[in-house]
Write a structure and sequence with these properties.
This protein is mainly alpha-helical. The protein is about 50% helix and about 0% strand. The chain has 3 domains: about 300 residues, no CATH class; about 110 residues, no CATH class; about 50 residues, no CATH class.
């Protein structure tokens, strides 16, 4: 390996390390409230997943923002220029798998990464199956159906409570498999990798072999992490190639005459130094992101809004609610019987073990300055003044009295299946899966046919005046 080739390998490792560290810091920042971005908004595949929803409704699926489209554009530039460069140089999950694989290679030696060719080819088609399933199901549900199985998102959130048991399992399986096979998820299950690999066939630059100067030493074959055979091809166009350039680095003839090189169309148009190749492509990916960020348009998800009670999300902190809705923290804590020692930076979703739900907080915010009989038209306890405002009720009663009212009115219930609970954030697509005749449901509540399926109940409540309890009753009597 020449000095320039060795420099290429070091450059690649350095770039991989930077992206892994950056994503790691962003994830930690997001989890701790330091200001890090949502990782769903930092993956180009998010742009693919939300494409159908955005085109048909003008909205993004949950947890996705404009940043995903910007990253998708950046990715497209590198795909046109060099095929699956993103996979081999930028993708943090691919890098982690590769590094775990180095340990596997030390443990198992020559037995490492020995996948029978026929089996390898068959397994390679699985990622196209995954791609089709994810796109179709995301379009149908308007949600990130891949979230619970995505090892990228789950690996870099492994220390948080945002991942499910399937997330832990997927990460564990991916890392263990990486001890035996090079980049197993990339090769056999990654939906983004399936798309990227297709561009290897017509990218501007490509890995080409000079048949005249090649000595057929097959060192390039041995170096290939995805078990391709560059020694038998004039141009490497396989969709499995990740453009890592390990085969180029391994070629001993390149020191004398360009033999296995990254080349532009035409004769003798080669990148003689891998660092030039990597820097050019890295700029294609990074510059659109930097420009977008400088213009303030790189948003990983919709910015927080505190205009109405319906704007409240589980990711909002208790302090955000207190500050933006003008409520005394002591009164808010008393309403839900929250311990005074609880940090105000605690997120609402983390209060579930105390019996506090997002829906309950929305109800409190909405009715706080209104007579309590507006919240409880029926079954109002005799010891409660119906003309008393909800805020006055909280001040005069024992801690948690309001929480007991919520349970009584059915706003919260520990016994009911949470997935079947109709909430303000429940979407029309969720109702469609529950009821036996969705068209009748639309007719019953006067919902326009052009209302997109990702419309939430809270929007219908505000726009049409539908009562949430009426929807719950309808679904219960017309459930499939």
């Amino acid at each position: 390996m020449s000095k320039s080739q060795a420099g290429s390998s070091k450059t690649r490792f350095f770039i991989q390390l930077i992206f892994v560290v950056v994503i790691l810091l962003i994830s930690i920042g997001h989890a701790t409230g330091w200001g890090g971005e949502n990782l769903h908004g930092l993956c180009p595949f998010g742009g693919v997943a939300t494409m159908y929803t955005f085109v048909t409704t003008g909205d993004y699926i949950r947890h996705i923002g404009q940043s995903d489209f910007i990253l998708l554009f950046s990715l497209l530039l590198t795909l046109i220029a060099a095929g699956a460069f993103f996979c081999g140089w930028i993708c943090p999950l691919g890098s982690v798998q590769e590094w775990v694989g180095k340990l596997g290679k030390k443990l198992f030696g020559r037995r490492y990464n020995k996948v029978p060719k026929k089996l390898d080819k068959i397994l390679g088609y699985l990622r196209y199956v995954v791609l089709a399933i994810v796109i179709i199901q995301t379009a149908r549900s308007f949600t990130l159906v891949f979230q619970d199985f995505d090892p990228y998102y789950n690996l870099f959130n492994i220390w948080t409570d945002e991942i499910s048991i399937t997330g832990y399992i997927t990460v564990l399986v991916t890392l263990i498999a990486s001890l035996f096979v090079e980049r197993p998820f990339c090769r056999y299950a990654c939906p983004l990798g399936a798309i990227n690999g297709l561009f290897n066939s017509f990218s501007i630059t490509n890995i080409r072999r000079n048949e005249t100067s090649c000595i057929d030493c097959k060192k390039c074959d041995v170096a290939c992490p995805v078990n391709l055979e560059p020694s038998k091809s004039k141009t490497i166009k396989s969709s499995a190639c990740i453009r890592c350039m390990k085969c180029v680095d391994a070629c001993p003839v390149n020191q004398k005459e360009p033999t296995l090189t990254v080349s532009l169309p035409g004769k003798k148009r080669t990148f003689k130094r891998g660092i030039v190749y990597s820097v050019v492509l890295l700029m294609l990916f990074i510059v659109p992101v930097l420009i977008s960020n400088s213009l303030g348009t790189f948003e990983s998800e919709e910015p927080a809004v505190y205009e109405t009670a319906n704007d409240i999300r589980g990711s909002y902190a208790v302090g955000d609610i207190v500050e933006n809705y003008g409520i005394e923290q002591a009164i808010f804590y008393k309403a839900f019987n929250i311990p005074e020692t609880l940090d105000s930076s605690t997120k609402i979703k983390d209060l579930e073990e105390l019996g506090v739900s997002v829906e309950g907080i929305r109800t409190f915010i909405e009715y706080r300055n209104r007579p309590i009989n507006e919240l409880m038209e029926d079954n109002l306890p005799q010891n409660i003044d119906p003309n008393q405002t909800l805020m006055e009720f909280v001040k005069t009663k024992n801690p948690g009295a309001f929480l007991n009212l919520l349970v009584k009115e059915g706003y919260t219930s520990s016994e009911e299946n949470e997935e079947d609970r109709i909430k303000r954030v429940t979407m029309l697509v969720d109702i469609k899966r529950m009821v036996d005749n969705f068209d009748d449901f639309r007719t019953e509540f006067g919902i326009p046919e052009d209302k997109p399926l990702n419309t939430e109940m809270r929007e219908l409540i505000d726009e049409i005046g539908i009562e949430l309890e009426a929807i719950r009753t309808y679904v219960e009597t017309h459930r499939k």
